[in-house]
Amino acid sequence: MVKIRLARTGAKKRPFYHIVATDRRSPRDGRFIERLGYFNPGARGGEQRLVLDTERLQAWQVKGAQVSSRVAFLAKQGGAAVEATAQA
């Protein structure tokens, strides 16, 4: 089963998250199938806070991928109509 969730990268105390489609059994920061965008909670100045390929996100949902609650929340902020389907 495929899940769309956040994978943490960045330095200590400076998080940066990739929004990825990955197998449910993969570790949080492990292998992924496709990178769909990123979320930068520490964005300053002209940096973008959220970049998301909504077309690919919806394509994965059509294929049966489950979206985590946090990714659904971020997608709604970005203007995409997404429902959370995963528990974690």
Describe this structure in words.
This protein has 88 residues and is of the alpha+beta class. It has one domain: S16 Ribosomal Protein, Chain: A (2-Layer Sandwich), CATH 3.30.1320.10. Helices cover 20% and strands 35% of the residues. It is built from two helices and five strands. The chain is globular.
Radius of gyration: 12 Å
Number of helices: 2
CATH superfamily: Ribosomal protein S16
Number of separate structural domains = 1
Instruction: Please trace the helix and strand order, writing H or E for each element.
Output: EEEEHEH
Taken from the alpha-carbon principal axes, the silhouette is globular
Query: Which percent range describes the beta-strand content?
Result: 35-45%
List the helices and strands and how they pair.
Elements: E1 2-11, E2 14-23, E3 34-39, E4 50-52, H1 54-62, E5 66-67, H2 69-77
Parallel strand pairs: 1-5
Antiparallel strand pairs: 1-2, 2-3, 3-4
